[in-house]
Design a protein that fits this description.
InterPro entries: HTH_MarR-typ (IPR000835), MarR/SlyA-like (IPR039422), WH-like_DNA-bd_sf (IPR036388), WH_DNA-bd_sf (IPR036390). The protein is mainly alpha-helical. It has helices at 5-16, 23-48, 53-64, 73-80, 84-96, 118-138, 144-160; strands at residues 70-71, 100-104, 112-116.
Length: 165
């Protein structure tokens, strides 16, 4: 059987502290490694566009919202699991770059909207396409049937853990 990086890490822990090793350890490490491999590729592409991962996620959430590409700051923070302070800082930076604009909420003076500017829509689309291409490039060495099986298995696992829609 072929071995991966996690097999080596698991072997060390099995020898050093057997109670730590096992399926739960290997599964969590493999999920983390998979995430790291995707993130490394995507982050490299985002850097070429002058974006951080967090900035990209905000642009992508706004773009995915559909026209007019706007959400309340609290909704953005909730979708991305960001604090209100973290969300505000990111929105300020994106505003300085003229990628997002703030609008007052006509129905609630205490609230506001954040929307993509015309340039923000273009940058968001370019970034999402670059991220998708980087992910696809990473998977070129994986047979499609294997990737589909892994995807289905991970979906089933997430649902079993309570992470359903």
């Amino acid at each position: 059987m072929r071995k991966d990086v996690v097999d080596g890490i698991a072997a060390v822990w099995a020898r050093e502290l057997a109670a730590v090793s096992g399926l739960q350890f290997e599964l969590s490490k493999r999920a983390a490694r998979l995430s790291a491999l995707f993130s490394e590729r995507v982050n490299a592409e985002l850097a070429k566009l002058g974006l951080t991962k967090a900035e990209y996620e905000i642009l992508a959430v706004l773009r995915a919202a559909g026209a007019p590409y706007r959400l309340r700051p609290s909704d953005i923070g909730a979708r991305l699991m960001l604090s209100s302070g973290g969300t505000s800082n990111l929105l300020r930076r994106l505003g300085e770059e003229r990628l997002v604009e703030r609008e007052a909420d006509a129905s609630d003076a205490r609230s506001s909207w954040v929307r993509l500017s015309a340039e923000g829509v273009a940058v968001a689309e370019k970034a999402v396409l670059a991220a998708s291409a980087a992910q696809q490039a990473l998977l070129t060495r994986v047979p499609e049937e294997r990737a589909e099986a892994a995807n289905a298995a991970l979906r089933d696992l997430l649902i079993a853990l309570g992470d359903g829609a």
